[in-house]
Amino acid sequence: MDNKQATLELGTKPVGKLLIQYALPAIVAMTAASLYNIVDSIFIGQGVGPFAISGLAITFPFMNLSSAFGAAVGVGASTFISVKLGQKDYKTAENILGNTIILNLIIGITFSVVCLIFLNPILRFFGASDTTIPFARDYMTVILGGNVFSHMYFGMNAVLRAGSKPRHAMLATIFTVIMNIILDYIFIMIFHWGIKGAAYATVISQVMALVWQLWVFSNKKELLHFKRGIYGLKKDIVKNIIGVGVSPFAMNVCACVVVIFINQQLVHYGNDLDVGAYGISNKIGFIFVMFVMGVNQGMQPIAGYNYGAQQLDRMMHVVKLAIIVATIIMTAGWLIAMFMPYYCSRLFTKDPTLIGLGIKAIRINLLAFPVVGCQMVITNFFQSIGKVKISIFLSLSRQLLLLLPLLAILPLIYGLNGVWYSMPTSDVCASIIAAFMMMAYMKKFKNQHKNMIHGRQEDNN
Predict the structure, then answer these.
(1) Which of 27, 95, 110, 264 could be joined to 294 by an S-S link, Cβ 3.0–4.6 Å?
(2) Which spans are transmembrane here (predicted)?
């Protein structure tokens, strides 16, 4: 089957089969990506020590900030490409590919240079202490040095999925995970490079995967491929990419701000090991979040294509299926958090104090997971069809509008416990807001679909 036929299937093939076809590779890829981060943490915790885990947790805001810029381009470009393929505008889709390359280069290099210049004060602001800053600095120096390759790797993977090549995107991610595990073991356990070894493993594995991605896009037989004339930045394309990418950018920036505030509050009301416990709970939750992100990535081209083709019944169907699957996944995460927290915490450290703090952090941080999947799918859906303002609002409602005030108020009353319980409380409230928003729009889409069918019937008569 050629690439154009594969793209056309987004509007004709049964929605359930399409979601499996697109989501399964993305889920495998995202699960692999979560293992990627977990393996780094396991090697660092077991091979370097408990305070290295806390130092790694300090770098989370950095990683979120880097992801924010990457998502602004990658998600924006992939969504724009999906809509253009749905409209059969293949020339514009190719130009989006070229502009994605240039934007990733510009943003990736600029981000690295600025952050490396101000690295120490930034890490202090993120909550690093005299004990944890050496670990955080060693890790981020290497990561920032290879940041432009990471940006390009994630951007190309997003375009592969949008261009009807979810399997290629999956294979690229799986390759980076396997290579990262191998290099982690070599650099940390054999060469004893410490936390820097984990950073080198991450960058080198992504560079290797990027080389293969670029080779795929160099094939002239592909529907989307590199060619002359597509690299000049075009105002309308850049505007649309950034316009759609603003939502995931805002989401990741908010996550960055929230993690900074959480780290600061944990250090203020607790200590460095509480930051490490939060890092452990985040890693466990991240596995299931990445599962749902895989479902979202599978849903995105289907919803975007059918929205562009005005096949609203198919668009609504895929959203409902995605919500059901996401809820099942997050409920599974909740069950593991409630009944197996010791084994999860022990995976990362041998330190008994950190294990105990990790158990508590896992149970509380994942307490509201059964309702979080729905909120994630709904937010991603509005982003997929270009409803940027709604997507941004739903992103902000969970992180800025709810979580930050709770993080400021609850610790004043309940101390350290107030920091922990502010997280599930904001999750529940944000999910309720998203559900009401989705119900309102589903009603609107149903009426729009009925009017379209009625109009077609009148035309036939």
Answers:
(1) 27
(2) 20-39, 51-75, 96-119, 139-159, 171-191, 197-217, 237-263, 275-296, 317-342, 354-378, 390-414, 420-442
What are 79-100's pLDDT values in tens digits?
888 778 777 787 888 888 889 8
Residue pair 410/269 in contact by the 8 Å Cβ criterion: no
Q: Does some domain include residue 2?
A: no
Instruction: Kindly report, residue by residue over 136-185, the tens digit of the pLDDT.
Output: 999 999 999 999 998 888 888 888 877 777 788 888 888 998 999 999 99
Tell me the pTM: 0.78
Q: Rounded to an integer, what distance in angstroms lies between the CA atom of residue 61 and that of residue 419?
A: 17
Q: What is the tally of structural domains in the chain?
A: 1
Q: In 3D, which of 419, 364, 384, 415 has the Cα closest to residue 295?
A: 384
Which residues lie closer than 8 Å to 112 by C-beta, 6 or more apart?
144, 145, 147, 148
* 8 Å CB contact between 45 and 345: no
CA distance 249 to 69: 6
Given a cut of 90, whether residue 422 has pLDDT beyond it is yes
How far apart are the C-alpha atoms of 183 and 283, rounded to whole Å? 20
> Domain range spanning residue 374?
15-456
**Mean local confidence (pLDDT), 2-8:** 60
In this structure, are residues 187 and 139 in contact, taking their beta carbons and an 8 Å threshold? no
Q: How many CB atoms lie within 10 A of CB 265?
A: 23
**Would you say residue 188 lies in a domain?**
yes
- Tokens 């979080």: give the residue: 372
Q: What's the pLDDT band for 8 if we cut at 50, 70, 90?
A: low
Q: What pLDDT is attached to residue 1?
A: 47
Of 69, 20, 77, the C-alpha closest to 298 is 20
In a domain, 132, yes or no: yes
Q: What share of the chain is helix, strand, coil (3-state, %, to 5)?
A: 85, 0, 15
